[in-house]
Design brief:
The structure is a homodimer. Chain A has nine helices and 19 strands. By secondary structure, chain A is α+β, with helices and mostly antiparallel strands. Chain A folds into two domains: about 130 residues, Creatinase/prolidase N-terminal domain (Creatine Amidinohydrolase, Chain A, domain 1, 3-Layer(aba) Sandwich); about 220 residues, Creatinase/methionine aminopeptidase superfamily (Creatine Amidinohydrolase), CATH 3.90.230.10.
Chain lengths: ~375, ~375
């Protein structure tokens, strides 16, 4: 935790800021390990100067703060002292001239209130703070992935004629929670032509013969997320379904190979590995086989949030580095017919990418 | 849906705006009934002018938009057309001079991007749009409450020596999902002294004799939320525990009576029913019995979000009106000892408040 705070302090000193307001929940978890705050409401701020660190929250959380992060000074917000007043006091006390805040996370109206405190407010993107994962973080993500793999194995046994998308969703969630973890997002289960909707919301539709079954789900273990997708066939896949599957699988393999640098012949060797180029490898391959371009990014970083930096998308400017964890998830979607997506998590290590999800990727017929 | 859009159009015409950007997910659900979008990422915007309505989203949602909201014009966002570019085109096409946006929901950085489109950007709070519920909405909340009551009855049978807080949380969630609904927030289950932390995160602590059991959970039925809290006793409550319980219960009853206007003798008759005065009734009663003030609001509006307007808190300026649905949830929390909270949902009707949750509130010993 000290390292993380020091990293934050280094960043804001470089930006010539005197103090920083941290407001996003994943960043608060990252810096304090406190994970009880609501994501939907403003319940806490951190206020970090070079020498002091404060947590501003209300009485509901006082006990947790005192017992779990005694090194943070607690400032209790109530109907008598608002966040703005408490921040104003801190700004004055520490004689803060230049104050940074998370521009992605502070709303327009909050900014308006804050700007009454101080003229020299500087927005600041903290999104990059968490892109390089520590060994401990990678282990947590890996454990989440392991439970994801177990869940996949379990759910294969539940794919039966007449089961509904919602029932399978529920079984996935039940299994993950029974094992002491949480889901990282509501699982997606899509049968037949529903699989052509990349973010399908599971229905009461029942499984019938010869349908595609797309399963996209993730585990949250100690606040760290996993994410995986597998597409299986209930009955024998048609030639077209097989062709789609094999194209997606090869697109994924090509992207992963590209990460490792083994595909130098196809793409010029790059010292700088750009997210957009990884996207391009998988995307171009799918297009080259006559399918439509992928209607989403080929991948995304993952950690305390399911989707976080780095971005692996056509417009990404992100450079992929050692210690980053992200998904590679190409897909083909044919409206009214069906879709295939295959998604794994990868960590970039010194010697190349290492897969964190290990569920089989051969064609599975049930 | 037409009524809701018309209401929105009336509002922004009154504000002399030419068009409005709607960005918050609950507001998008309210206006389109589309509920698949992520709450954590920006996946859709509505753009509403007097005569036209657009939905901007990416290819993953195109099929759902076309089949479910054909009256909205779909503008597909991709790596080639960003949200900003699509909005810019619309602003030009409709010759928009004054554009409104949701100031609570648009981040500082998003606002910065939008302000490049148009000089005359006007923030606008849409939070009030949903405070008065229609009959259909009240029925949905009531159904969510009914399943909440069933869940409470069910969970009483699961409160046994050695069960953990997490296990009970899981049973609550399991029961609600088995009945085809969702949870409206992660359930809170707190044993013994943990009950003094109003937003306790359930642990693996096991239930032992003579502990308080606090249960706070909600159901989401067709996107509408319920919320309820009950505090029961595993074993015979002590005299002090009983006194706490009865004080909280009476504080709640007094606040509900105040809503009905039946307690005119204690509080002067008010034509205008203020949220802050309802809060005061319960809060003052608890303080008058020698306990600390409640470390949270006495109540909150509820609907598509668990917490929404109106606010029932010491600083609330909200006027409570017919058709509003909100919680009344006083509590007493003694650190290291334990806490009691009792929470019900109420709808304000012509003839006064009507309870939507019906679980028993006598002292329950298990």
């Amino acid at each position: 935790m000290q390292d993380r705070l020091q990293q934050l302090i280094n960043i804001f000193q470089k930006e010539k800021l005197d103090a920083l307001i941290v407001s996003s929940i994943p960043n608060i978890i990252y810096l304090t390990f406190l994970s009880g705050f609501s994501k939907d409401e403003r319940e806490a701020f951190l206020f970090i100067t070079k020498n002091e660190k404060y947590i501003l929250t209300d009485g509901r959380y006082s006990e947790a703060v005192k017992s779990k992060v005694p090194d943070f000074k607690l400032i209790e917000i109530s109907s008598k002292i608002s966040f703005e007043e408490a921040l104003k006091t801190l700004v004055r006390k520490h004689n803060i001239k230049r104050l940074g805040f998370d521009g992605d996370n502070i709303s327009f109206l909050e900014h308006k209130k804050l700007s009454r405190l101080l003229n020299d407010l500087n927005h600041f993107t903290l999104g990059r703070l968490r892109t390089i994962k520590s060994a401990t973080e990678i282990i947590a993500i890996e454990k989440a992935c392991n439970l994801g793999d177990k869940t996949f194995k379990f759910i294969l046994g539940k794919i039966k004629k007449g089961v509904s998308e919602k029932e399978l969703t529920f079984e996935i969630e039940f299994f993950i929670k029974k094992h002491g973890s949480d889901i990282s997002f509501p699982p997606i289960v899509a049968f037949g032509k529903n699989s052509s909707v990349p973010h399908h919301v599971p229905t009461n539709n029942k499984l019938t013969n010869n349908q595609i079954v797309l399963l996209d789900f993730g585990v949250k273990y100690k606040n760290y997320c996993s994410d995986m997708t597998r597409t299986v066939f209930f009955g024998k896949p048609t030639i077209e379904q097989k062709r789609m599957y094999e194209t997606v699988l090869l697109a994924q393999q090509k992207a992963i190979e590209f990460l490792s640098g083994k595909s130098d012949k196809e793409y010029p060797m790059q010292r700088i590995l750009l997210g957009k180029n990884v996207d391009k490898v998988a995307r171009d391959y799918i297009i080259s086989k006559g399918y439509s371009s992928i209607p989403h990014s080929v991948g995304h970083g993952i950690g305390l949030e399911v989707h976080e930096a780095p971005h692996i998308s056509p417009n990404s400017k992100d450079i992929l580095k050692e210690g980053m964890v992200f998904s590679i998830e190409p897909g083909i979607y044919i409206p009214g017919f069906g879709g295939v997506r295959i998604e794994d998590l990868v960590v970039l290590e010194k010697n190349g990418p290492r897969l964190l999800t290990h569920s089989p990727k051969r064609i599975i017929e049930i």
